[in-house]
Amino acid sequence: MASPLDPVTPAGNRPVVPTITSQVQEDLPSLAEARQLEQLMGVKPTLWRRLQDFSGSSQMRTCLLFLPPALLLFTLFVTWPVVEAAYYSFFNWNGYGAPSKWVGLDNFMRVWNDPIFFSSLFNNLLIILVSACIQVPLALALALMISDKSRSSVVFRAIFFLPYILGEIVAGLIWRYMYDGNYGVVSVVYRWFGREAPQVLATQGWATAALLVVVIWKYFGFHMALFVAGRQGIGDEVLEAAKIDGANLWQTTLNIILPLMRPVAVLSLFFSILGSLQAFAIIIALTDGGPSNSTNSAVSYLYNFGIKRMRVGFGSAIGVSLFVICVLVMVFYKRLFMRPKEGR
Amino acid sequence: MEKNRRGLDVYYRWLVLLLAAGLCLLPLWATVIGGFKTSGELRTNAFGLPRQWQFDNYVSIALSGRFWQMLGNSAFIAFVTVTLTLLVSSMAAFVLAHLRFAGKKWLANYLALGLTFPFATAVLPVFIRVRDMGLLDSYWGVILPQTAFNLGFAIVLLQGFFAELPHELFEAAFVDGCTYPRMFWQITLPLSRPILATVGVLSLVGSWNEYLLPLVMINNESLYPWPLGIMQYQGQYGTDWGKVLAFVSLTLTPAVIFYLMAQKHIIAGLTSGAVKG
User: Fold this and answer.
1) ipTM given for this complex
2) B65-276 CATH choice from 2.60.40.10, 1.10.3720.10, 3.90.1150.10, 3.40.47.10
3) Which of A165, A258, A322, B236 counts the most CB atoms within 10 A of its CB?
4) CA distance, residue B190 to nearest chain A CA (Å)
5) What does pTM read for this prediction?
6) Min CA distance, B195 vs chain A (Å)?
7) B156 chain-A contacts, CB cut-off 8 A
């Protein structure tokens, strides 16, 4: 069974019988001997000893084989670019040649003095608020109606989840049609009442509301699925105990199920925040940030003002700002609402 | 659940659910059916069945090479991304779950960093990196960054699952002289199908729908994945909605078929994956 490359040495966590194989320096105790001695004497192996143990073992060879692809890819395309973004953000640079025009904090000043940046961030906030106040409660209510195993519930769950798997681009385009004042469904509804439909997506304010509707439409199914999973995770014993105590359906829901679902709600809102901070394609397809930049999100702002015009320094400053906001929000949210997970 | 619900309750439940389902499906219905209508009819009849079925829109798109090419591009990118993500992340997760070495915790935390910020924040430097590597306008310019960004959640999910596998198996294998790569290949992976499926579904859906990354990396139209192609088509035909709707309907067909076939697994995968990640 043993491969020729890997003689059975006590490379694991526990030394077996010390096999004395060191023929190079016979006067010195072999690693295995030293280890056994240390164990007999009850000495905790030092870091150096652990490293010695580790190097040359099959453990290390495995590490050398298995870790580099992930580390390399991750460093090259995820962490290092963030560091680079921080560096580039101090330059005025169009991406060609080496960055040479140092401008200090200029880019950051421009980002943080740009009203469009703030209106974009405000839209992110709006998405989170609408999600917290409408989407999540709606998803919870529907989830409680269809978390049983009946056939109709399964069908409804499938329907509600469907918009979530569609691409953001598809969702955006479908609703662009829906809102079209000349063709779309909105215009038809208006005509039923004998009115001429407004160009929803071309009117400030309405366009933002329209975007929020699309966000709810596309993502409430995901939240519902989270709640369904949470509801199904509540044991029958609890509910039966409540029933025996004479609680009716309403009381059970209010006093038992909802409190038990709190962690799911916390999680669900967490995803709303995460999703809001990433909102991009849905906006591009629906409004492209218009009219007059009133429907941008942070990322679409980054795209429209940094990437599209190849203003690497400025775009990087936006990216770094966004990065800091994300990390702060995540950390605060986790500290406030989420207990640290065990056994990670 | 309870069988003793009042009749009225059941009635309201159905009313609410049907209404919600209707609102959910209405845009999709209007889109698919809209592709069969002429522009004139779209103006007056947005919901109903077309008075005259017009198949031109669908047929001309389905017969065009461009449509199939972009679906092919997307499929290739998604396939390679999923394969690479699974392979690379499961290897790293195996080491993190089963081997003990100094700095392991640090390493795991480092790889989990990818979960804390959206890809967009670093997209400009990634663009420059990809350009300097000469990978712009190639599938790899999309695949590699996408895989890299999947690693965070993939490794966290896989490592959690691997660590729960019964220890005795590995000890027995070790005693029998099994090497670590073989343990990985013959014990860990076969036992981890559920979580591999979860990670696979998550990265598949993500890759299939990805817009920003190819938008930045790909200029060559023959390499466009479908989200880029569809936006280009929309830009070309503007408010000729019949054509655009047919195009949209055709591109969402593969996703919907896939969803209907494996609906249960997909919902479970996307939600449980998100929860644990």
Assistant:
1) 0.90
2) 1.10.3720.10
3) A322
4) 18
5) 0.85
6) 16
7) 344
